[in-house]
Design a protein that fits this description.
Distance between the termini: 15 Å
Number of strands: 6
Order of helices and strands: HHHEEEEEHEH
Helix content: 25-40%
Number of domains: 2
Structural class: alpha+beta
Shape: extended
Number of helices: 5
Radius of gyration: 23 Å
Length: 216
């Protein structure tokens, strides 16, 4: 916390009371500051963070113009019951409904994760993370966006662990909205989310402190 407070105080003093200038300077140094905090929160870690793990072929782009083989699952939802237009008079009925497209957050590669070991069957698990070749189950809910997005091509596809978690969750006993996808093979390594846990807690605490002090 002292590193965060020190950075704010330093830029505030340097800006001579100009809050906009201080904020601009803090934004400019945010990434190196956070990476420094990341190293500090891992001072007692047992092994080093690797920034550039070896990648399997499915993550390499075939050419400059072609993407890799990973489907990033960009769901979008059309609500046929919603319209920006007011209805006509009762005897004329309603105008045609205008569909509103609701883009949802894309689930790309999760931060700080690796894909290192090849599994010829299901390699998914709470302690492993990477990419998986799956055949998704049928999504029979037109009133809800498909968790895998608007995919036109049927059959198997490569997805990340972050994308796989959603259909697995929706197929569980709590929601039971679909069947679990079939995982054919996986490229995974040990999940490294815990690397960021101490950093996440630190940033949450700093944000809460700033809100309480009215300086957020």
């Amino acid at each position: 916390m002292g590193l965060i407070r020190g950075a704010v105080e330093q830029e505030a003093e340097r800006a001579g009371g100009d809050e906009d200038a201080a904020l601009k300077a803090l934004i400019g140094r945010a990434i190196p500051d956070v990476m420094h905090l990341f190293n500090e929160t891992r001072a007692t870690a047992r092994y080093e963070y690797t920034a550039y793990p070896a990648m399997p072929d499915v993550l390499h782009k075939p050419s400059k113009r072609e993407p890799d083989q990973i489907w990033e699952a960009r769901p979008a939802y059309n609500n046929p019951a919603y319209s920006l237009r007011a209805p006509e008079r009762k005897h004329q009925g309603h105008r045609p409904r205008r569909q509103r497209r609701l883009p949802l957050r894309a689930q790309g590669l999760a931060p700080d994760r690796e894909a290192g070991t090849h599994h010829r069957s299901d390699g998914a698990g709470p302690k492993r993370c990477g990419v998986h070749l799956i055949t998704p189950a049928e999504w029979a809910h037109p009133h809800l966006p498909n968790p895998l997005g608007d995919r036109d091509e049927p059959g198997a596809l490569w997805i990340t662990d972050a994308t796989l978690r959603l259909p697995l969750r929706l197929s569980g006993p709590k929601w039971a909205l679909t069947e679990a996808p079939t995982v054919h093979e996986s490229w995974t390594s040990g999940a490294t989310e815990n690397f960021l846990d101490a950093l996440r807690k630190l940033l949450v605490a700093a944000r809460s402190e700033a809100i309480a002090a009215g300086t957020s």
